[in-house]
Design goal:
The structure is a single chain. The protein has 4 helices and 7 strands. The chain is α/β, with parallel strands linked by helices and about 150 residues long. It has one domain: Rossmann fold (3-Layer(aba) Sandwich). It has a 7-stranded mixed beta sheet, with helices on one face. Helix 3 links the parallel strand 4 and strand 5. The longest helix is centred in the N-terminal third of the chain and has 14 residues.
Length: about 150
């Protein structure tokens, strides 16, 4: 397993992290983000999408819609927020293709209920922790060697 830690002292560093992540993403990648409310999951998603060419003002948290979809030059991005789901059975209301962008990139906030359905291929797990006011630490882990490029 690959494990990488990045310290993000401010919002500018979060934007840089999103840009760096976006450079290695390819169709089939699934980014699963955990962290407390307000820890920066949506901010990181916004910056990943913006770095892929999606206007940042179009990227919003899909807390109530569950899934937002954005087009980018190589395909589609599915942005999921599963915070409101309480049971894995609630995912049965969706077609798997509506959740996971098989030919695109999937960004998942609050992924706990989805983890067992997707396995580890193409998955990057990100845990965002508060360090102090304005700063965060992100811990990334994966079983997929694709993400070794984040170490450089």
């Amino acid at each position: 397993m690959i494990t990488i830690k990045w310290f993000l002292p401010d919002l500018e560093a979060t934007a840089t992290a999103g840009a760096k992540l976006s450079k290695i993403l390819e169709p089939g990648c699934i980014i699963m983000m955990d962290g407390d409310l307000g820890s920066g999951k949506t901010t990181l998603c916004k910056n990943i999408c913006a770095s892929l060419g999606v206007p940042i003002n179009l990227v919003t948290s899909p807390t109530y819609t569950m899934v937002n979809m954005y087009s980018y030059n190589s395909g589609v991005i599915h942005h999921l927020d599963l915070y409101r789901l309480e049971d894995q059975n609630e995912l049965e209301d969706f077609d798997f293709e509506d959740l996971i962008a098989v030919d695109g990139i999937t960004l998942v906030e609050w992924p706990k209920l989805l983890r067992s359905l997707v396995g580890t291929q193409g998955v990057l797990n990100i845990k965002i922790n508060y360090v102090s006011d304005g700063s965060r630490e992100i811990i990334m882990s994966s079983h997929d060697s694709l993400y070794e490029r984040l170490m450089n």
